[in-house]
Design a protein that fits this description.
- It comes from Paractinoplanes bogorensis.
- This is Bifunctional diguanylate cyclase/phosphodiesterase.
- InterPro entries: Biofilm_reg_signaling (IPR052155), EAL_dom (IPR001633), EAL_sf (IPR035919), GGDEF_dom (IPR000160), Nucleotide_cyclase (IPR029787), Rev_trsase/Diguanyl_cyclase (IPR043128).
- The protein has 741 residues and is α/β, with parallel strands linked by helices.
- Helices cover 57% and strands 13% of the residues.
- It has 25 helices and 16 strands.
- The protein has an eight-stranded mixed beta barrel with strand order 8-9-11-12-13-14-15-16, surrounded by four helices. Strands 2-3-1-6-7 form a five-stranded mixed beta sheet, with helices on both faces.
- The longest helix has 33 residues.
- The protein starts with 6 loop residues before the first helix and ends in an 11-residue tail after the last helix.
Length: 741
């Protein structure tokens, strides 16, 4: 700690020594000025701390410094009466200053704790409501009964009530900040030191036993000393109640603090009662003590389950967000440090669970947790487990250099092998880094941003760290808007189908229509599938999109059947993600039955990547074909399937991608590739369909190569159902052909 940061401690020690001397030395005209001098020093310290610390909640500290100044002014006035051997009137100007000081102090702590949550208010109320009752019984009610002038009674009542309000606000602020910082402890201790002598003075004044210069005056002097020390403390600018409400778990320590206060009040009530009332008070005290002891252990167990991860013992998500709210509240106003989140996700952890079992996976997670805990700054950083293989490091009071060091340590130390059941595993971790110096930042949004950066790290190659920036925020916001708008589009009928004909090259007749979905966006116009289908796949709405397209297609087929007496076969694209969905087959078959459509009227187009999954081929696709639904492999040649997969005969047609078809009329190499693809399809008894036919030369070459069907802008661009209806009406030769060869 720098030398200048100890000023608060020297001030407190020196002031305490002087205050103690005032109590022990005989009272005279010289020593009587020690009392106002000590109290004035507290006000001066508060103003100095306010100027040096530049706290965010400047108004609260300004009101507190002003309250100390008014209280010190009242002490000076009383010392003046003593100097001139004059009897102080009641109420006097000093009493007015004291009341104003109480009101300002109450406003200061209310301002300081105005973001405090409901839990802190309830717990502060648990302590102050019994005090308020004691105040009424012992101070306020006797004062009202004794009578006197209205002004005198008002002053006598307002002072203890003001002290009670100050204490409530201080307890609320302290419980909200959980006394994490030394200034918080000094602040609450100062308010308690203000409350106790005020309570004593109210009692002594009623029974005429108050004598100046006694030990109780030490409490009045400790109050400005403690509050002045709180203002001078270097952590004073970080003394802030969190702006965001966090889950407040009633810890054992917090519970004991509240219960100790309640039991103290019960003990006071028992001691001050008379006769049978005293026996009742003692019985209540014993009962409350036994209840407090009984609930301590279950409370500790519940608190542990609510805040700790059961497997690793690390803080869980709830506890992480709670600590993050405090870290944000304690950010300095000058931006000298930041709060950082490092979102860590193990790479390929699912493979460990799938191959070795969950017990091995748990062992690995415990080891990883230990490695992460060993990679952070000692005593300052918090390591939490969110669940699964996700861990988060919270770094309060961090710099960008600090986060870079920890992130680099994470991605390098994880390369060391872990041996589980004799098997060597080489884990790696992807890390997303999010930092902020904005105390108003939302904890949930910060965590989401760190998660976004982590996925960037995975996309960029895994085993690395990525830092979140504004570009990520814009992209994340755009994805969120797209997700909301797409879900509304599904519900509001903004999605519609256009159709692209596939023509049989031998007869010139219609082979099939490919249905392509379009989104008629209310502000962005007509959107193609590339602009929203990938999002639908990754955000869990691709199934809804497929069902909508399937219903539209079969409904339109119903219209064509009614008008022309036949159903043009229509191809509908299926996402690889849907092929593992057990609902796909029932949805397809039920929809066909609903429209009384034969399975041969439907072709499902799957991309080549679907061929790599044996379950998909032997399960989903085999079942669909067994029911008469045709299957075509779309964009053939662009994936990574082996040719041997095609021999399994779970398809009816191969669609040769436009990247191979384009330019075959003038490029022998491309022509050779397409020739081989057509020959492969025919050898497997599959139809070969060429995509991207743009001109007559390409079409002529495809006929020469023996291609079965073609699709492209040479015939027409994708058009709506009305245009297809017109084409069928004008071209009777567009008679339907079977979906399969």
């Amino acid at each position: 700690m720098p030398r200048t940061s100890r000023l608060w401690l020297w001030f407190l020690l020196a002031g305490t020594v002087v205050a103690s001397a005032y109590i022990m030395l005989p009272q005279n005209q010289v020593t009587s000025w020690i009392f106002p001098a000590v109290n004035t020093s507290g006000a001066v310290a508060a103003w100095i701390g306010l100027a040096r610390g530049k706290p965010r909640n400047r108004s609260a500290w300004t009101m507190l410094a002003a309250a100390l100044s008014l209280s010190a002014a009242g002490d000076i006035i009383f010392a003046g009466y003593d100097l001139f051997h004059a009897e102080a009137p009641f109420p006097s100007v000093a009493d007015v200053l004291y009341i104003a000081a109480h009101l300002l102090a109450a406003a200061a702590v209310v301002r300081l704790s105005h973001h405090a949550g409901r839990d802190s208010m309830l717990e502060a109320g648990v302590l102050t409501v019994p005090l308020a009752l004691q105040y009424w019984i012992h101070f306020i009610s006797p004062t009202l009964q004794d009578g006197g002038t209205t002004l005198a009674v008002l002053v006598a009542v307002v002072t203890p009530v003001g002290t009670l309000i100050v204490l409530f606000g201080a307890l609320r602020a302290g419980l909200s900040m959980e006394m994490r910082r030394a200034p918080a402890r000094l602040l609450v201790a100062g308010m308690v030191a203000w409350f106790i002598p005020d309570a004593y003075y109210a009692t002594a004044s009623l029974n005429g036993t108050y004598v100046g210069g006694g030990w109780m005056d030490l409490g009045w002097m400790l109050m400005p000393l403690l509050l002045g020390a709180a203002a001078l403390h270097p952590q004073m600018p970080q003394l802030n109640v969190p702006l965001h409400v966090s889950t407040n778990i009633l810890s054992v320590r917090r519970y004991l603090l509240v219960i100790a206060g309640v039991l103290t009040l019960d003990a006071y009530a028992a001691i001050t009662a008379d006769g049978a009332d005293q026996l009742v008070g003692v019985a209540v005290l014993i009962s409350a003590t036994l209840a407090a002891i009984r609930i301590r252990r279950p409370l500790r167990d519940m608190g542990r389950r609510a805040t700790q991860d059961a497997l690793t013992g690390l803080p869980n998500r709830t506890e992480l967000l709670r600590r993050l709210t405090f870290a944000l509240a304690e950010l300095p106003a000058d931006g000298s440090s930041k709060v950082a989140l490092l979102f860590c996700d193990l790479d390929r952890f699912k493979d460990v669970n799938d191959s070795m079992g969950h017990a091995a996976g748990d062992t690995m997670l415990v080891t990883i947790a230990e490695r992460i805990a060993g990679s952070v700054r000692d005593g300052r950083d918090v390591v939490a487990r969110l669940g699964g293989d996700e861990f988060v490091i919270l770094m309060p009071e961090a710099t960008d250099a600090d986060t870079d060091v920890v992130a680099e340590r994470l991605v390098t130390t994880f390369t060391e092998p872990i041996v589980i059941d004799g098997v060597e595993l080489f884990p790696s971790v992807s890390v997303g880094v999010r930092t902020t110096d904005d105390y108003k930042a939302d904890p949930d949004e910060l965590l989401r941003d760190a998660d976004t950066a982590m996925y960037r790290a995975k996309t960029a190659g895994r085993g690395r760290a990525e830092r979140f920036d504004d570009r990520y925020a814009a992209e994340a916001g755009a994805r969120l808007r797209l997700d909301t708008e797409l879900r509304h589009a599904l519900a509001n009928g903004e999605l519609e189908c256009v159709y692209h004909p596939e023509i049989d090259l031998k007869t010139g007749r219609l082979y099939a229509l490919e249905a392509l979905v379009r989104w008629r966006h209310p502000t962005r116009g007509l959107l193609t599938p590339d602009e929203f289908v990938p999002h639908a796949e990754t955000h869990g709405v691709i199934g809804q999109l497929f069902e909508l397209v399937l219903h539209q297609v079969l409904t339109q087929q119903d219209a064509w059947a009614a008008e022309f007496g036949w159903r043009p076969p229509v191809a509908v694209n299926v996402s690889p993600r849907q092929l593992s969905d057990p609902r796909l087959i029932p949805v397809v078959l039920d929809t066909l039955r609903e429209h009384d459509a034969p399975p041969s009227s439907l072709i499902l187009e799957v991309t080549e990547t679907a061929l790599v999954d044996d379950t998909v081929m032997t399960g989903t696709l085999a079942d669909l074909r067994a029911h008469g639904v045709a299957v075509a492999v779309d964009d053939f040649g662009t994936g990574y399937s082996s040719v041997s997969r095609l021999a399994d005969r779970h398809w009816d047609a191969l669609k040769i991608d436009r990247s191979f078809v384009s330019g075959i009329a003038g490029d022998e190499s491309r022509e050779g590739v397409v020739r081989a693809m057509i020959a492969l399809a025919h050898s497997l008894k599959l139809r070969a369909i060429a995509e991207g036919v743009e001109d007559e030369a390409t079409l002529t070459k495809l006929r020469e190569l023996g291609c079965d069907a073609a699709q492209g802008y040479h015939y027409t661009e994708p058009v709506d159902a009305d245009a297809i209806t017109g084409m069928i009406a004008e071209s009777p030769q567009w008679e339907a052909l079977p979906a399969a060869a």
